[in-house]
């Protein structure tokens, strides 16, 4: 088995640039959430509920997986979102031991407004060439047959 080629200075520069742009986007997201009276994690709950595949609700366990966090942490996030009038809990349709979480109208409107701002920020990043470093990381240079990393 052949050893992979060592990473070049350009590989490190592209990776560093990608992480920088990712962090800028995440900072934008954090500040936007705060402007709307939410924590970034609360926004993530709303986003995952609105974007959950195939339905308009998710269980606590599904949200924990999508957020990559612990079940008890998601329960706390849901409680805080519920106190703000953004989500509601319901007993499971098939299994009453499960809790289904869905957006309320205020949560729907808030996540719509915030997601639109996130999309606009991503489009602005794309206009500035913000994804070029990611493309080069994943696909290498124009003549490359394999990823740079």
Automatic annotation (TrEMBL):
Spans through the membrane: none
SMART domains named among the record's database cross-references: HTH_MARR (SM00347)
Domain called HTH marR-type: residue spans: 8-149
Organism domain of life: Bacteria
InterPro entries: HTH_MarR-typ, MarR/SlyA-like, WH-like_DNA-bd_sf, WH_DNA-bd_sf
Protein name: MarR family winged helix-turn-helix transcriptional regulator
Organism per entry: Vogesella amnigena
Lineage, top ranks: Bacteria, Pseudomonadati, Pseudomonadota, Betaproteobacteria, Neisseriales
